[in-house]
Design goal:
Layout: E1 6-7, E2 29-30, E3 39-45, E4 50-56, E5 63-64, E6 77-85, E7 90-98
Parallel strand pairs: 1-7
Antiparallel strand pairs: 2-5, 3-4, 3-6, 6-7
């Protein structure tokens, strides 16, 4: 997960402090080194609530705009992710969001 910890205005990727770049990279979280096959990235809160599921294609890396499946922005805190391939392989990790 990049950046980690994630600051709401992180400046990751060259964004200005105001987030005025065309790509709005200051509000994205990137998942890298994912399997070279289709998989799903499940994101959970510290309490175990499913926050979002991201479908990853073997052809590119997905970026996430830290919006929940209920269309709300993430609160500050510790989050966990589980990457699951179609053949059942899993790996996991964690990241922090700071407002």
């Amino acid at each position: 997960v990049v950046p980690n910890p994630f600051f709401v205005v992180s400046g990751y990727g060259g964004a200005s402090a105001q987030g005025t770049t065309g790509g709005e990279v200051d509000n994205k979280i990137g998942f890298y080194n994912l399997p070279k096959q289709d998989c799903k990235v499940h994101i959970y809160s510290y309490s175990g609530q499913l926050i979002q599921t991201i479908n990853h294609s073997k052809d590119y890396t997905n970026e996430w705009f830290e919006v929940t499946r209920n269309n709300q922005f993430l609160a500050s805190g510790l989050y966990f992710f589980v990457v699951e391939t179609d053949d059942g392989q899993k790996t996991h990790g964690k990241f922090v969001v700071i407002h």
